[in-house]
Amino acid sequence: MVKEVKELVNRPDNTAYTQQRLPAWQPMLSAGIVIPGFVSIGLVFIGIGVALFVTSQSIQVLEIDYTGVEQSSPCFKCSDQTGKKCDCVMNFDIDSLFKGPVFFYYGLSNYFQNQRKYSVSIDYNQLTGDLDYFTNPDDACFPFQNDRNKPIVPCGAIANSMFNDTFQLFQLVNGQKKEVPLDGKGIAWWTDYNTKYRNPSVTPLRNAFNGTVKPPSWPQAAYELDTEDTSNNGFINQDFLVWMRTAALPDFRKLYRRITEGDYASGLPAGNYSLEIVYNYPVLSFDGRKKVVFSNVSWMGGKNEFLGIAYLVIGSLCVLMSIVMLIVYAKFKFPEED
Amino acid sequence: IRVDSRTIYVGHRSSSTNEAFIPPKFCDNRIVSSKYTVWNFLPKNLFEQFRRIANFYFLIIFLVQVIVDTPTSPVTSGLPLFFVITVTAIKQGYEDWLRHKADNEVNKYPVTVLEDGRRIRKESEKIKVGDVVEVEEDKTFPCDLILLQSSRGDDTCFVTTASLDGESNHKTHYTVPDTEKDLESLNATIECEQPQPDLYKFVGRMHIYKTNQEPAVRSLGPENLLLKGATLKNTQKICGVAVYTGMETKMALNYQGKSQKRSAVEKSINAFLLVYLCILVSKALVCTTLKYVWQGKPGQDEPWYNEKTQREKDTNLYLKMFTDFLSFMVLFNFIIPVSMYVTVEMQKFLGSFFITWDKDFFDPEIKEGALVNTSDLNEELGQVEYVFTDKTGTLTQNNMEFIECCIDGFQYKYQDESSELDGLCVPDGPVSKLQQKAGREREELFLRALCLCHTVQVKESSEQGQAHEQRGFIASSPDEVALVKGTVVERSSMYELLHVLNFDPVRRRMSVIVRSKSGETLLFCKGADSSIFPRVKQEEVERIRMHVERNATEGYRTLCVAYKYLSEEEYAQADAGLREARLALQDREQKLMSVYNQVETGMSLIGATAVEDRLQEEAAETMEALQGAGMNVWVLTGDKMETAKSTCYACRLFQRSTELLELTVRTLEDGGRRREERLHELLLDYHKKAVQDAPPVKAGVTRRWSSANQDYGFIIDGATLSMVLNSSSESNASRYKNLFLQICQNCTAVLCCRMAPLQKAQIVKMVKNSKGCPITLSIGDGANDVSMILEAHVGIGIKGKEGRQAVRNSDYAIPKLKHLKKLLLAHGHLYYVRIAHLVQYFFYKNLCFILPQFLYQFFCGYSQQPLYDAAYLTMYNICFTSMPILAYSLLEQHICIEVLLDNATLYRDIAKNAMLRWGLFLYWTLLGVFHGLLFFFGVRFLFSNPALQDNGQVFGNWSYGTIVFTVLVFTVTLKLALDTRHWTWINHFVIWGSLAFYVFFSFFWGGIIWPFLKQQRLYFVFANMLSSVSAWLVIILLILVSLLPEILLVVFRKPRGPNARQIAPVTPLSYKHLKEDD
């Protein structure tokens, strides 16, 4: 980097920038700023922490493992058969009102939706309804790209492994089963449902799938996901969308239904309930677990103790540190301060 | 086959008609300083760029990504690499284009060539060896020419070599004696040595063929050679024959670049890089191992939902492991920041402008500011431990003033011209007599000697009739001007100049042989006392020696003048010897030298002169500041001990209380024993005094501040130094060297006098390679300092009077010595702090960038799943976090410049690469690890329930990564904001701007379905994240938790103790001191 000053008569510019004299703010972290700062941060954090903690405590959660590992589990009979349809019923009690709206999640453990090979095994162009990719799925979908030379739609491992257990919830009132209405709308991201995924603009939808096959693990084709509601069918089926948003961690839960309607809009009243499960999804082969989770949510989302505790701990630490600093300063520093 | 000499046919005329004339092949007169052509630019430049280890590493990573199925697309590493390569290529291309332009300007320059009597205009590049070229006044010579004909009557021409070595005085060059006036009929060949770069050496022979005569032979020397690049002055036009052309000219041969100097910071970077490479490899190894351990558990390797392809199943296990390893390498490779090199380069390049721009470095006298020849060493200016300075022209002004002279032991003082003149003295000579005076004939002889024995040219002023004050003097040495000015004698005595026995630094004297009107042949000799005294009659010496020594202790430069009458035989012998030696093609120097030495003997001493060399402005203050900053100042000079010593006293390098340890020829001869023994004894003695008896120096507090200690100054001369370095026995040599170094390291100042240029470099080299590898700086102004300027870590040239050679070879050039203080204490200090922080910060920010990605592997089945989206991976170093640190590294002033200049001791706080020590590196690394862990696990615990929105919907893995990334970008930027103590509007702009840009970009990137992307992973992820209160809270929590310990550390790390005030501003993040100074 050789620079040559060609002009001999060049007195350097006398500007603030060239002379490194730009006006500058020189902040100073002195005890006078740090201690009140810590105290106020600490107090704010403790405040937020208390709010979070109280909120989190008020959230009710009910988890039911229905994998059927133990022999006592009603679903034990279903756990050994893979792929075959099997029904089992889990009964449970609710002691007090489970405040609504109640959210119905299913949870999977030791299930790696975030495996790289798995998470790239998707053809986004198919899922926007581009018919060219129906006949010619992307290579990334391999080995769920073609099935006996027929293209799989939707292709790829994610779609193929879509969770397909189904649930029905009944309240047992006087020995009568009273179905709790489950709302399958509004469980997927609004943008996923409205803009990101699109069905091909072919009516009826099934015609678009001519010449293609369903993913091998699916019991029905994509156009049969919700035969009653066309706006919840195909690639914009909300269960499908929820599944396609791959989970961050191997133990995850996904939203299955919301309980917002009828008698249960304000929550699940105390009583006996029975959950009828159509057990399709095999998880024991990879030592996984399945569960259903009932939970209500607050402004901070689902139950999460971590945030509240973390805010409380950090807030208290800040206050503690400011006290320590105050002591240290009172003993050693104050004469120097001025 | 390379022959030792080349033969040139002047005007392409063959010597004899019967010989077949084969024109020898020489290179054409094209100067090519450019590196590339349009055609080879791309391959050659790319090749050169990928020779850099870092670029090559990134290329390999890129290729791995292209070939192997890796988690991130090749774009993520290819784009930054492409950016870096392109920027560098553009920069180098631009520089080369400038060189092309400069080359063309030279090569297309029109010149006049004489061909068969006709004058033909040609482009400069068409000149061939043997062409006769005509050059007019004020034009530069297009190639190296042998002067054949000059328009001046006395067969001379004047030349300035300002653009070659910067010496702006007029030098006289001579035509080849006795050549024909008619160049057309000149039939001659020139035999000369092959091209070599020494500007001042040339030997050749010219054979002139005349019909019916024996060929005449003339010797050619540097005085006949006109160098390409020099300019013709005071002469209407000349003709010369081209001997060296194009790339073989001395100028082109001298053009070759200097060797690359590397700064200590760069070495630190490479060391850190190695550590990070180890971290990278071990991370990849850990992940690969764990992957296969984990997969060994039943059911994990291939769950039904993630079936492997047949090909994967068939692949060899070890090959799979290897590709997995490579994939992990690629995934984590961002830990080694490609952008750091760009940022460092930009910082150095842009930062160096502040030196050139500094108006404090502007010298109104020469109308120039500082010059930066290399920006690679900016930070090294803040690390200097040893300063080697030249005396003449550096510590002193090299502006000679005649002070006094002594003739036969009687003293004459110079007085103002207005003062009364002693009638008895030379009529209008400004030399007046004090007390007694010597015999008149001695006076006259002395003045005559001074008048004759010089190379001063009198430049006639244009207005005739003006008094002699109007005359300007141009000479090859400023000493001479002063002398001649002091002794202007209007005397028309005619002397015929017979020979000039030129000055050279080895003999340290010059002589002239003249013939007076009366036919007597005289030799006048002028030189340093040490070189004259042994050559004159001993009885005369004592009287004058006293004066010389007294003058020397007063800090004057002294010269002794001697003469002798030469008898006819003596002269004839000398004349023959000189002529023969001058004609010699080989070993001309040695032959001349022996003749000189032969002639210059048995002279009688007439007198001595004293010329004052004034100290540079603020020399003492500068030296004091340098010493206060903990630098050892060594004065290396060719001058004699007494003069140098007095300069040292004047510069306050030696104080009155300083005990001087002398190791010179004189002290060695004191004991009357063998020199070697005495040397041994003295060295041990001094070592005991200065090293063993001195109380151990506490770190941070040096001798100067503890007054109880005795100061030592060490003096050594060239002869003794060579004894120390080249002792007779090998074992002694290294032992002496060690003793010598230890003594010197414990002395406040060291003076080395009577040094040859090469010895100066030797000393620098010795110190440079001594224990601890201290950073050395050499400063000088003359050609004799070039060797040490090149040798030292940092070479500083002073734009002085002794030419531009030092400036050209230096890394930085400043107009005056006093500028050194600001250059080191302010600029050097700031540059070092800036770049050190830059380097540490870069490693830190990439560690906490990649660590979460590493940790994520434990939660995704070691499947190389990236945590962040490819856009974030690519943009992190390029856009989101690069500008604030660049602005910081250009503008940061942790202490303001005035304070740095006032408290030289602040410089000690960053000595020995203080901010890039392993301890601090560890601190930054741990900080990075802490932040990385915090980011990852904070979000991990949050995601134990991924239902983070108040509508019960869940977040996926890209939300996870985006939250971590948001925390990351904010934390590292705010961490820098916390470290910034000098907030100009630029800092505000880039810091808040970067954060705003990140938010804006994330919205933008997630807001559109990008048609070129295979997966819309981030579609509305960022916006959704912001709609979650929990995400906001976790982001705020993690950022604050990351930064609060930093703030705590600041508060508790406030220094205590007596030195707190000095140390305070340098400890990162203590702002106290600054406010006080505002």
TrEMBL record, chain B:
<keyword id="KW-0460">Magnesium</keyword>
<dbReference type="GO" id="GO:0090556">
    <property type="term" value="F:phosphatidylserine floppase activity"/>
</dbReference>
<feature type="active site" description="4-aspartylphosphate intermediate">
    <location>
        <position position="390"/>
    </location>
</feature>
<feature type="binding site">
    <location>
        <position position="754"/>
    </location>
    <ligand>
        <name>ATP</name>
    </ligand>
</feature>
<dbReference type="InterPro" id="IPR023298">
    <property type="entry name" value="ATPase_P-typ_TM_dom_sf"/>
</dbReference>
<dbReference type="GO" id="GO:0005769">
    <property type="term" value="C:early endosome"/>
</dbReference>
<keyword id="KW-0967">Endosome</keyword>
<dbReference type="GO" id="GO:0005789">
    <property type="term" value="C:endoplasmic reticulum membrane"/>
</dbReference>
<keyword id="KW-0445">Lipid transport</keyword>
<dbReference type="InterPro" id="IPR032631">
    <property type="entry name" value="P-type_ATPase_N"/>
</dbReference>
<dbReference type="GO" id="GO:0055037">
    <property type="term" value="C:recycling endosome"/>
</dbReference>
<feature type="binding site">
    <location>
        <position position="637"/>
    </location>
    <ligand>
        <name>ATP</name>
    </ligand>
</feature>
<dbReference type="InterPro" id="IPR018303">
    <property type="entry name" value="ATPase_P-typ_P_site"/>
</dbReference>
<keyword id="KW-1003">Cell membrane</keyword>
<dbReference type="Pfam" id="PF13246">
    <property type="entry name" value="Cation_ATPase"/>
</dbReference>
<feature type="transmembrane region" description="Helical">
    <location>
        <begin position="1030"/>
        <end position="1052"/>
    </location>
</feature>
<dbReference type="GO" id="GO:0000287">
    <property type="term" value="F:magnesium ion binding"/>
</dbReference>
<protein>
    <recommendedName>
        <fullName>Phospholipid-transporting ATPase</fullName>
        <ecNumber>7.6.2.1</ecNumber>
    </recommendedName>
</protein>
<keyword id="KW-0256">Endoplasmic reticulum</keyword>
<feature type="binding site">
    <location>
        <position position="526"/>
    </location>
    <ligand>
        <name>ATP</name>
    </ligand>
</feature>
<keyword id="KW-0067">ATP-binding</keyword>
<keyword id="KW-0597">Phosphoprotein</keyword>
<dbReference type="GO" id="GO:0005886">
    <property type="term" value="C:plasma membrane"/>
</dbReference>
<feature type="transmembrane region" description="Helical">
    <location>
        <begin position="871"/>
        <end position="891"/>
    </location>
</feature>
<feature type="transmembrane region" description="Helical">
    <location>
        <begin position="989"/>
        <end position="1010"/>
    </location>
</feature>
<feature type="binding site">
    <location>
        <position position="781"/>
    </location>
    <ligand>
        <name>Mg(2+)</name>
    </ligand>
</feature>
<dbReference type="GO" id="GO:0005524">
    <property type="term" value="F:ATP binding"/>
</dbReference>
<dbReference type="GO" id="GO:0016887">
    <property type="term" value="F:ATP hydrolysis activity"/>
</dbReference>
<feature type="binding site">
    <location>
        <position position="784"/>
    </location>
    <ligand>
        <name>ATP</name>
    </ligand>
</feature>
<dbReference type="InterPro" id="IPR001757">
    <property type="entry name" value="P_typ_ATPase"/>
</dbReference>
<feature type="transmembrane region" description="Helical">
    <location>
        <begin position="325"/>
        <end position="344"/>
    </location>
</feature>
<keyword id="KW-0547">Nucleotide-binding</keyword>
<feature type="domain" description="P-type ATPase N-terminal">
    <location>
        <begin position="19"/>
        <end position="77"/>
    </location>
</feature>
<dbReference type="GO" id="GO:0045332">
    <property type="term" value="P:phospholipid translocation"/>
</dbReference>
<keyword id="KW-0472">Membrane</keyword>
<comment type="similarity">
    <text>Belongs to the cation transport ATPase (P-type) (TC 3.A.3) family. Type IV subfamily.</text>
</comment>
<feature type="binding site">
    <location>
        <position position="785"/>
    </location>
    <ligand>
        <name>Mg(2+)</name>
    </ligand>
</feature>
<feature type="binding site">
    <location>
        <position position="392"/>
    </location>
    <ligand>
        <name>ATP</name>
    </ligand>
</feature>
<dbReference type="InterPro" id="IPR006539">
    <property type="entry name" value="P-type_ATPase_IV"/>
</dbReference>
<keyword id="KW-0813">Transport</keyword>
<dbReference type="Pfam" id="PF16212">
    <property type="entry name" value="PhoLip_ATPase_C"/>
</dbReference>
<feature type="transmembrane region" description="Helical">
    <location>
        <begin position="958"/>
        <end position="977"/>
    </location>
</feature>
